[in-house]
Amino acid sequence: MNYTNDLKALSDIVNNLNRADKEKYFVDKCEKMFSSLESIIGLYIDYATRENKLSEFARKQIESSRFSINNKLSETVNSILNYSDKRNLLESKGFKEIIYYTPLIMSDSVLEHRRYDPENISEELRESASKTHKKLISDCSSRRKDDIIITSLCKVLYEIRSNMKHCGKTPYGPDADKSKRDEEICELVYPTLSEIINILLQKPNKKLLLYGTLKQGQANSSILEKFRGNPKQVSIWGFIEIENELPYYTFSISSSQNEIPVELIYNDGVSAFLSKLDQFEGSKYRRIKVPFNIENDIEIGYVYEKNT
């Protein structure tokens, strides 16, 4: 990775993301994804501080001890994403759905501070509690610079993160709609959150790691021939078991010396083919993110692991 080669930290990040993929509810998926995102932010901010790559705004925030988590996120996203990444994110279906979503996303912190009645929220209170979402919409409609829009998006994401931590207690009794509201909003932001993490991890959805019959020259290699190009030899951590003459990989860094040689396919077309490949591999395998070693650098890609 450009900003870290910390195997343990990257393993914790992908383990959380892999657990998120298995969750049924979007609130639980997003909870684990936000946890991974916060780890990524920490790694990048440490790197940028060390290498003197922080923006002037970020340096001033640190000096005044006001460098909030949503500002750290916008610093990370705006620094790592290139112009094309930002344009694609802001033109994506998932982002547009956030912009057009109604009712507006409200801050639970504002609602609770105002001791709201969930059955009778005034228009004035709705207006006050939805300022962050309205700012994002305004920035988009005013065609402001991408960095400014992304900063507003990051504030919305972390308002949602904050909302997830509130329990919904009010002076008038529990907010009966809060769980439903949180689930709906987490489903709304899930695609955008996923894409941000994908880009921050240098697009693992375009990197496929092969160790069995899909490898070049093996029985099923033709399935991926159009994506193969010039595959590279890299290694992943874990172990392989043979069952009924088929190899099953399990990810583990319990022994960092236990590296398995695999073939890396890096191709833009891989991401659109992954769902078909999932069907081919069947229920005995599941696709997960793992760190891999490429010329003494650590990157993240997809591999098929034994489904337990």
Structure, explained:
With 308 residues, the protein is of the alpha+beta class. It starts with 6 loop residues before the first helix and ends with a strand. It has 2 domains: 7-202, no CATH class; 205-306, Hypothetical upf0131 protein ytfp (Roll), CATH 3.10.490.10. It is built from 13 helices and 6 strands. The model has no long low-confidence stretch (mean pLDDT 95). The protein is globular.
**Quaternary class:** single chain
Round the Cα radius of gyration to an integer and report it.
22 Å
Distance between the termini: 29 Å
Roughly what percent helix?
A: 40-55%
Counting structural domains, the number is 2
Mean pLDDT across residues: 95
> How would a crystallographer describe the biggest sheet?
6 strands, antiparallel
Shape: globular
Strand content: 15-25%
Q: Report the strand count.
A: 6
The ordered string of helix (H) and strand (E) elements is: HHHHHHHHHHHEHEEEHEE
Structural class: alpha+beta
Unreliable runs:
none
How many helices? The count is 13
Supply the key terms:
alpha+beta, 16% strand, Hypothetical upf0131 protein ytfp, 308 residues, six-stranded antiparallel β-sheet, 2 domains
SSE topology:
Elements: H1 7-22, H2 26-50, H3 56-63, H4 69-80, H5 83-90, H6 93-100, H7 108-113, H8 123-129, H9 131-141, H10 146-165, H11 178-200, E1 207-210, H12 225-228, E2 232-243, E3 246-251, E4 259-266, H13 270-281, E5 285-294, E6 297-306
Antiparallel strand pairs: 1-4, 2-3, 2-4, 2-5, 5-6
Can you give me a brief rundown of this structure?
With 308 residues, this protein is of the alpha+beta class. The protein is 52% helix and 16% strand. The chain has 13 helices and six strands.
